[in-house]
Amino acid sequence: MEFNPCMKHKVVRGAAREFAEGELGPIAAEIDHQARFPWEAIEKMGALGYFGLQAPRRMGGAGLDSISYAITIEEIARVSAGVALCVTVHNSVCLYPLLNYGDKEQIARLAEDLITGRRIGAFCLTEANAGSDAGAVETTATAVEDGYLINGTKIFVTNGGVCGLAHIFAKTDPPDPRSAAVLMVEKERPGFSVGEIEDLSGMRANPVSSLFLEDCLVPRENMLGKPGQGLKIGLAALDVGRLGVAAQALGIAQAALEAGTRYAKERQQFNKPIASFQTIQNYLADMATQTDAARLLLYRACAQKDAGKPFATEASMAKLYCSAAAREVANLAVQIHGGCGYSREYDVERYYRDAKVTEIYEGTSEVQRMVIARGVLSRPS
Ligand SMILES: Cc1cc2nc3c(=O)[nH]c(=O)nc-3n(C[C@H](O)[C@H](O)[C@H](O)COP(=O)(O)OP(=O)(O)OC[C@H]3O[C@@H](n4cnc5c(N)ncnc54)[C@H](O)[C@@H]3O)c2cc1C
Question: Closest ligand 1 atom, CA of 159?
Fold first, then answer.
């Protein structure tokens, strides 16, 4: 068992950190406060391969293994979790299912625009009556002569306001719950429109929105997989997506740990740095331990995937633990900052807001526990 990063992973971390600190660092607080999508940085990221992180090199992707992918997301999230959210959803729940379930024609037609970042990807499962219960989707895709006619409303779509291609989960044969299918919808199709951008508590740099589909006609060639395979494809994509969300959470925890440590050394009370007080040291000890444990769980899940082994249970464990750790580490970082921790002048309040949602999307912590328990119970005793 090897606990030290190999040269490849060091290089990946160094490159991602340099980019994140150089390009995203100066704007991270502003894009959060203004709830602004940073197109200028996103275009550079497209040119540098951030939108095809795990796509094969022969297709113009970066060809990263899963640990390198997690390191890259972690480093972006350490600086701007809102941007990391954009990159994660695009790579793991839009591009990944296309490359893994798409046929040759679909990949040839749609992958390049995603890999280069010319089209930003979205994954649209959630509806007003279908959240944790993914099988309750009410959007319909009715077979017609020249394709499928989609009708429905998707909510809380990450990248919704800027997406060029959206994977829409819809029922092809209602009310059969197994009839869900994934339809890939380009933004220019008539009947596809974007709702108001959500006024979110955290991840404010991401234009999360509703998407409306009103008699939106897509050709049969835009169905990913076969009718009835939608939930299977969605759940497989979410297994990979959870590695990305865990990496976002880890990046936030790391940033909060660093900020808390810095402030504890600088801030003087009772004529001493607050870092000299045992209670503050206990906070830092807990923050460092949780961040390290989160990292180990995440990299273990990634290593399982890279070895071609089942990794769904491990990915859910990583997502469950990393997200709780991020929330708690960010909470303690705010506490260490005292009143300043509650001010927008300091980054820690942003980390706290950003951390919380990692316990909610791509399966809440309650849903992760259901997945983990299923895995545990299915093991031979
Ligand atoms: C910023 C943001 C971005 C998002 N991006 C996307 C996206 O890109 N695509 C997308 O499809 N969705 C997205 N979502 C939606 C997100 O995935 C859902 O909010 C999440 O899955 C929970 O669904 P819900 O909000 O309907 O909560 P509900 O399912 O109504 O759950 C409410 C509460 O009940 C609990 N609960 C539900 N069922 C059970 C059960 N069986 N046992 C125990 N507890 C249960 C939940 O854990 C939760 O605590 C996003 C959400 C946010 C906030």
Answer: 8
